[in-house]
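hey all, quick one before standup. I had two proteins in the batch that finished overnight and I want to keep them in one place so we stop losing track of which output belongs to which input. First protein below, input sequence then structure tokens straight from the run.
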Amino acid sequence: MRDSVVFYRSFYEAIKELPDEQFAACVRAIMDYGLDGLEPSSAGIAKSIYLMAKPQIDANNRRYQNGTKGGRPKTTTEPRNNQTVTKHKPNDNQPLTIPEPKEKDKEKEKDNVKDNNKKAFTPPAVGDVAEYCSQNGYKVNAESFVDFYESKGWMVGKNKMKDWRAAVRNWARSQRQELTAKGSKPNQFHNFEQRNTDYEKLVQQNLTKKLREDMGDYGKGN
């Protein structure tokens, strides 16, 4: 049982033109499986939608489970009771001499301070990216973004990524430029009359295409 499930735009795009009753049945099939693992009991378009969305939902669940696994905390070694600690008292008559640091030691110390000031990069989870995109209105597929940069070891060109939020903004900017270049696309059902359309076949084809774009098409550029 899960407390949440990612409902992708590709799911919605595939079923939004269906009649209300079929639309509701498809949404229910996706949510029942994503939250409670329940499969549709009868055949029909709702089951077809479930079968198309199931691999993506399963992949999200596996990623979530792997993210919840953690290592055992480190333990500190306590000194044994039979060990004695000898404290040396300073000699009041002995002058205190503080050696001057060497130039190389000073440079190393400065470098260490700079390194400590740099914030270590932590790869985001799909939920982190999705939340950031939702807050800022970016039309970015969080799953595709994380999968893409995971496959590249979170590298941007030849450099290690420092700010994944900046990478999201660049992704969204490139996406908008690509859509502008291609021009607006017609509605996916604009060539079909509702009365004589095989909606089940049409939705299966459309959702398969959308899922492939979300899950794998970006990998061709690697």
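OK second protein, same deal, sequence then tokens:
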Amino acid sequence: MKQVLHKIWYQICDNQEQLLKQVPATLNLPQNEINHLTSQPARPIMIKTIFSKQLSIHENLMRFRSTPHNLNWPTLNPSQLIFEKYQLIPVHACSHRVSNCQVQCQECQQFVPCPECACSCSALVFNNVIKCLKCEQVQGLNQTCIKCSQPLFDSSCDFCGCWFALNNEPQVHCQKCMKCHSISHRFCTKCKSCFQEKEFVETHRHVETAVRCDCCKSVVVSDSMKFAKIECGCHICFICACMHRKCTHGNGLEIVEGVWGGLK
């Protein structure tokens, strides 16, 4: 079973931890960074009275920073604070989505973790049939497995064809980039892609002549972003480190170690 690093927010009630937010962290962190984060003790992250369950982690932090409060707030009684920690949680997941189920392709009847891990069928049309990855029970769209009671997903998107995730962060479907994101993303009209709000404001630079990944269509905008120029059979494709297995031409790809480079 795969273990995925999660960021966890909790409060203390009657000397017990009460979960408030649990969201997957970045999936591609080096193991030494994961070990460092999970070894750190929980830290106070904000005052409980300012926290809102309806807001994402990013929005809660922005709200906290913009709200007048005592500068010595970390010294308040623990029952008045929200705490943050990192923890590895076992999940049955692919590299793109954290969920405990697979969805069935309408054409070939195969089960795939998400649209990016799709089968070889040209039309990505999915049945309303999923399979639990813990007990392999095939069933309808149930958020909890009817056989083993494993949580399967807590959010989904009809616009994406079929998209499931275990993610307490509010998700929205962007009609411009045609992907689902947390609500703390912003669409760049020049790059035609969505970026996290923090990245968009602090580090994003517009690309007039964009280099795009031929799998996920993300723009290669960072000098340090890894990408490869690979012949996929009939085309030369730019592939970023998105873990996709097929390019937009439907050809399978094998990324060879050593061909990655930075944007020149």
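Flagging for whoever picks this up: The chain has three helices and 16 strands. Residues 95-169 form one domain.
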